[in-house]
């Protein structure tokens, strides 16, 4: 992921890791928003001053320059001093924003809606689900009524409504009229002057067999337009009413989707039976979010976002037991060791820690002096959550929480709880290199435990863990078995994200055998990277393809001819020394090597240490060679990087030999 700019809600920016960038005050955000509205065109300084102030300060041009300088520092923090800005540029009499087409959420949204016209109904639904999920509030929220933003804000709002209606039409084409009707009812109520919303709602209702309801909607729309606006319905509504009355053949629904119908009926019954402020709704919501996360695509980031909101809502009620259940119910199996959204994870961890403290106080108050046990299961789930959501860090709390969660789960003899705790143990099993055998043991227990107790999602996790571990140990025959088992379970239980990992494993498998031409392996990695498009896993996707290609070329001693604008994501510190060496810039490579940090404790630490070792050997840096050797010795019998199930740098032993030579 590259730098992101957002105007589909409050104006904001995100760094390549998805973290929000501090843009200081509203004037800074208004400058950025004004330049986004200009879509790459130069906005003269005089125009900017007029747009930003009705009562300008004494030196508005100086103030504007200050805002621009601050924005440049925030948006391009790595730009060397005194070098020209690449994003927010000075040109002629003013400034312009030179952002790529996919950098601004509004521009991506426009492209997604335009693309939907050429897609199949299934693809349209997926594409628009994702695009509509980018909205965080009104476009240009705090500036929407400014004269310079008003037109673009209203145009985007209209485009969003059009997208909602396009998506509803796609759902009806797929035979999912029930789901379309549920979405359209709220849409039409919120935007009562949109005749197309009423038309689509009536059509969706008719296609679910509710002819009377469809007619009632059409007549209500007619009355609303007449009473409030003094106009008759347009031709679309009139012709639909006639067609409904005569049951025109072209209105016949697509093949019915029984699952969609059941969903709407149950959801409606739940809505009627459970009070809006009932606490049970929060627990039910968490269960839905867990299932949503497992669907991948736009469902995964949406689930993460709404999970944080649900946890906050539970805390506001002041009931630590409810909060513990809401936090602990989201036991979504985790296989990748880099977080997709560290900020959200930190908020969940903080809430879990507060809830643990509150539960401990409650236990102590009810049984002074006794060992608290009343909330052991909740405590274990909170601890497992803390361990999973703090993965990849060097904090002692993660491993400690994982160990304690596993101890409690084994004592309680709770299979589902133990599976979650084992996932936590896996996520914290990276305190040094060479721990693939230990992770293989965790994976084997997960497979056996989950198969016995029907825990399909954790059974899949166990197979993927073993796939990674056996790959690290060079046992691809066993890894193949686990890849096939994971795929079979994923097909049976509709877990589309599994194919991302097994697809990458297939590319790794071709790479590791050494019998496939390098060009074909590169193509396989590029095909695997395409699986990540729209998968909702930035922590996995960001920088992964360049890293895989770098490892492949390093292993085969091929030129490291990457484009200057290659996005290395979080792997840049370990790639840059080798890239600079490949360009003959030894002094700069040595400087870069000296600032290379110790790799994070995750599935790629062996690979990153080997890249460091390779650069140190090439530069003759004995100190870093010794550090790399010491770090890699425990992994002497592994294939570097293969423990990720994604890529490899070949045997660690070769790098150890070079470092000690």
3D architecture notes:
The chain is mainly α. The protein has 4 domains: 1-156, Arc Repressor Mutant, subunit A (Orthogonal Bundle); 175-273, Alpha Horseshoe (Serine Threonine Protein Phosphatase 5, Tetratricopeptide repeat); 280-428, Serine Threonine Protein Phosphatase 5, Tetratricopeptide repeat (Alpha Horseshoe); 507-660. Helices cover 64% and strands 3% of the residues. The strands form 3 sheets. The protein has a 3-stranded antiparallel β-sheet with strand order 3-5-4. Strands 1-2 form a two-stranded antiparallel sheet. β4 and β5 (94-97) form a beta hairpin. The model has no long low-confidence stretch (mean pLDDT 89).
Low-confidence stretches: none
CATH superfamily of the largest domain: Winged helix-like DNA-binding domain superfamily/Winged helix DNA-binding domain
Q: Reading side by side through the largest sheet, how are the strands ordered?
A: 3-5-4
Described by the principal axes of the CA atoms, the overall outline is globular
Q: Per CATH, what is the topology of the largest domain?
A: Arc Repressor Mutant, subunit A
Text of the CATH class of the largest domain: Mainly Alpha
């Amino acid at each position: 992921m590259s730098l992101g700019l957002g105007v589909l809600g409050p104006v904001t920016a995100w760094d390549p890791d998805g973290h929000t960038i501090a843009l200081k005050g509203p004037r800074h955000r208004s400058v950025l928003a004004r330049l986004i509205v200009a879509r790459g065109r130069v906005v003269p300084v005089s125009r900017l001053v007029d747009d930003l102030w009705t009562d300008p300060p004494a030196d508005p041009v100086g103030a504007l320059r200050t805002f621009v300088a601050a924005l440049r520092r925030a948006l391009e923090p790595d730009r060397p001093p005194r070098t020209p800005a690449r994003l927010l540029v000075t040109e002629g009499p003013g400034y312009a924003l030179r952002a790529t087409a996919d950098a601004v959420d509004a521009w991506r949204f426009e492209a997604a809606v335009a693309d939907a016209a050429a897609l199949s109904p299934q693809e349209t639904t997926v594409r628009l689900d994702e695009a509509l999920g980018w909205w965080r509030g009104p476009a240009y929220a705090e500036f929407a009524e400014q004269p310079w933003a008003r037109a673009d804000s209203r145009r985007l709002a209209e485009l969003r409504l059009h997208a909602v209606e396009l998506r509803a039409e796609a759902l009806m084409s797929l035979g999912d009229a029930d789901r379309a009707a549920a979405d359209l009812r709220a849409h039409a109520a919120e935007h009562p002057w949109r005749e197309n919303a009423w038309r689509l709602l009536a059509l969706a209702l008719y296609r679910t067999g509710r002819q009377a309801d469809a007619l009632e909607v059409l007549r209500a729309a007619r009355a609303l337009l007449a009473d409030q606006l003094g106009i008759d319905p347009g031709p679309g509504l009139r012709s639909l009413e006639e067609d409904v009355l005569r049951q025109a053949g072209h209105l016949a629904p697509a093949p019915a989707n029984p699952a969609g119908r059941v969903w709407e009926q149950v959801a409606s019954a739940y809505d009627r039976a459970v009070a809006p402020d009932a606490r049970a709704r929060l627990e039910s919501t968490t269960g839905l979010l867990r299932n949503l996360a497992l669907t991948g695509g736009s469902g995964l980031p949406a689930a993460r976002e709404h999970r944080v909101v649900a946890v906050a809502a539970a805390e506001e009620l002041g009931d630590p037991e409810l909060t513990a259940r809401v936090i602990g119910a989201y036991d979504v199996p985790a296989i990748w060791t880099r977080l997709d959204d560290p900020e959200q994870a930190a908020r969940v961890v903080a809430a879990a820690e507060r809830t643990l403290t509150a539960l401990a106080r409650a236990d102590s108050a009810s049984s002074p002096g006794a060992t608290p046990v009343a909330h052991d299961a909740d405590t274990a789930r909170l601890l497992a959550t803390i361990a999973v959501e703090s993965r990849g860090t060097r904090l002692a709390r993660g491993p400690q929480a994982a160990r304690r969660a596993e101890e409690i789960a084994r004592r309680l003899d709770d299979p589902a709880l133990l599976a979650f705790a084992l996932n936590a143990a896996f996520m914290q099993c990276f305190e040094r290199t060479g721990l693939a055998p230990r992770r293989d043991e965790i994976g084997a227990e997960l497979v056996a435990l989950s198969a016995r107790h029907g825990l399909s999602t954790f059974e899949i996790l166990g197979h993927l863990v073993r796939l990674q571990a056996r790959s690290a140990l060079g046992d691809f025959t066993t890894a193949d078995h686990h890849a096939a088992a994971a795929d079979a379970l994923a097909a049976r239980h509709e877990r589309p994200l599994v194919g991302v990992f097994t697809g990458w494993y297939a590319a790794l498998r071709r790479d590791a055998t050494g019998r496939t031409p390098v060009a074909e392996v590169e193509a396989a990695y590029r095909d695997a990277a395409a699986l990540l498009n729209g998968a909702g896993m930035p922590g996995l996707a960001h920088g992964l393809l360049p890293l895989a290609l770098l490892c492949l070329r390093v292993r085969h001693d091929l030129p490291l001819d990457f484009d200057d604008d290659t996005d290395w994501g979080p792997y840049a510190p370990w790639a840059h020394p080798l890239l600079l060496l490949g360009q003959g810039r030894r002094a700069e490579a040595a400087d870069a090597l000296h600032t290379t940090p110790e790799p994070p404790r995750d599935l790629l630490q062996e690979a990153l240490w080997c890249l460091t070792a390779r650069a140190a050997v090439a530069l003759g840096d004995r100190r870093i060679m010794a550090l790399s050797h010491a770090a890699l010795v425990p992994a002497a019998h592994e294939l570097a990087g293969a423990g990720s199930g994604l890529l490899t740098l070949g045997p660690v032993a070769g790098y150890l030999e070079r470092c000690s030579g």
